[in-house]
Write a structure and sequence with these properties.
alpha/beta; Nucleotidyltransferase, domain 5
Amino acid sequence: MTESHTTPFFLGIDVGGTNVKVGIVADDGTVIARASVPTDAVKGPDNGVRQMAQASQQALKQASLTTDQICAVGLATPGTMDIPAGLLLDPPNLPGWQNYPVRQKVEEALGRPTILQNDANAAAYGEYWAGSASEADSLVFFTLGTGLGGGLIVDDTIVQGEHSHGSELGHTIIEMDCGRLCKTGQYGTLEAYCSATSLIERFHEAMDEGRQSSVSDRMDDVTALSPLLMAEEAEKGDELASELILEMARCLGTATTSIVHVIDPTMVLLGGAMTFGRHETRIGREFLSRVQEEFRRRAFPVLAEKVTIDYAALGGNAGFIGAAGCARRAVLRGMI
């Protein structure tokens, strides 16, 4: 299976609150094997590392490779962390994993040099290395999901910052007064306006105000309110669902303008689980168009003309591909 692929090989691990995704990636960015297992986060971090090792062995077997044939491992995890020290500090969706030396533990479990990176930064690097931004010099990347994450890449450098908390785009302030409350306790953040959590909250608020929607007709004990359900009804013409989705796009376009003015990137990509069908649906195309329109309305003319805004390409694979890419980058720079 591996003869036609470019060596060396890198292993990328993307740790989520629900699943661990692992992929073996060739030097040219091609995925040659992948596996996924439950994180079982509530069983603790040591068990989580065993799950990572299990998924890694499944991927290695699929690719007919041994661990010794892996050049390095990239590990992408959520939450607050100390990247140079390899520590998870207090990840909210990994209960009991506080102050855990996750890089060291994974390195010991797999016997290969390992680097740690924030999951959103890793996904951004995946798109930069092997996805929609592979021809770009710099990138702003948004991950739209339950929350809102992001990553900034400038000239092959991940903007992770002095304290491992750079590129936290979801915490950009877009409303100074009377802003919506974010789950972090801050008011007016982008995440408070552009996340699945926020979209659902705003739908309930609209219903409490007496608005009507076909979305509510589909909600029962089996079918819960979700962005996917709202997107499906918006696609059919539901006014409220369309209004809320496109208002979210307007807020995202506003924040995009501020971030673009800071780093002047080649392109901006929208990824994550909540992209409303991307180019394949009318509401997905309208969402992207509204982001672009708001950006063009607010940005410097030269930026409005030259910066590309589009959907990302790698989907749910971006995290482990980017983690593998970060490992490759570390090897090329002599960091491991």
